[in-house]
Amino acid sequence: MKIVDLFWEGICIIKQAISWYKGSGKLLELFLILLILLLIFSEKNSFERRIAGYTILSIVVLCNPFVAVILKKIALETVYWRTLWILPIGSVSALGMVSVIKKIKKNWMKILLAFGFLMIILKCGSSLFTQDNFEKKENWYKIPNEVIKTADVILKDSKGTAKVLAPEEISTWIREYSADIIVPYGRGYIYGYDGWSGAIEYLREAWNGEYVDLGRIAEIEQAWNYEYLVMAKDKAEVGNVEALSYRLIGSTEKYNVFKYIGEE
């Protein structure tokens, strides 16, 4: 790949990162203006000048197209924009405002300017208290009640650590509810950023096909010494699962919970 191509790829990465980072507000633009004011009004070799210098250096590095390409390829495939979190936006913005206010001699003008800055901040940002930011959950765990009921069935029977095969849509929540429940894969694998395993892929194919491959799931469960199996009610009949040496130990509205009892 040519240097020019890498450069423009980096520019695209940075533009996307900035877009995701700043959202719909104008706080990033306000921060850049206040950073310039801080650099202008702060005294040489002062703490404020050093903070401004660090911030400018960080911006130069993070917005370097070649750095963006390298970081994205080695570690930050989908989250490069989060590197912008290291920018001290709040601190620099506050220092910039204070550096301007300190140059004013009359107290009433300082108060007026401080109030003006407050209004600018409110105008540039967006309200935190919106329906999009808050949602009433079903319980203190902030996970579906169906998951809690399913996990409780397992924990009541196991009386301790339990190894469980469960559908992807609830497996990570079950683990979040109780560390005593062990599942074969986590959120990282489900969303594709935590490596690849042929064995796990073999299991996922059994779960995610047009029909659940009960034979393959039973094979994996026994090979990996997993004791419990959670199946959605609309994916498999109880009798078909029990025919593979499982016993139904409990049910919720959506799921059946089975325990492997071995060949009789």
Q: How many DSSP E strands?
A: 5
Arithmetic mean pLDDT: 85
The gyration radius over C-alpha positions equals 28 Å
Which strands sit side by side, in order, in the main sheet?
Answer: 2-1-3-5-4
Secondary-structure content class: alpha/beta
Strand content: 5-15%
Q: How is the topology of this model organized?
A:
Layout: H1 3-22, H2 27-41, H3 47-62, H4 65-74, H5 89-101, H6 107-124, H7 145-158, E1 162-165, H8 168-177, E2 181-182, H9 187-190, H10 198-208, H11 214-223, E3 228-232, H12 238-242, E4 246-251, E5 255-260
Parallel strand pairs: 1-2, 1-3
Antiparallel strand pairs: 3-5, 4-5
Helix pairs in contact: 1-4, 2-3, 2-5, 7-8, 10-11
Task: Characterize the structure shown.
- The protein is α/β, with parallel strands linked by helices and 264 residues long.
- It has helices spanning 3-22, 27-41, 47-62, 65-74, 89-101, 107-124, 145-158, 168-177, 187-190, 198-208, 214-223, 238-242; strands at residues 162-165, 181-182, 228-232, 246-251, 255-260.
- It has a five-stranded mixed beta sheet with strand order 2-1-3-5-4, sandwiched between helices.
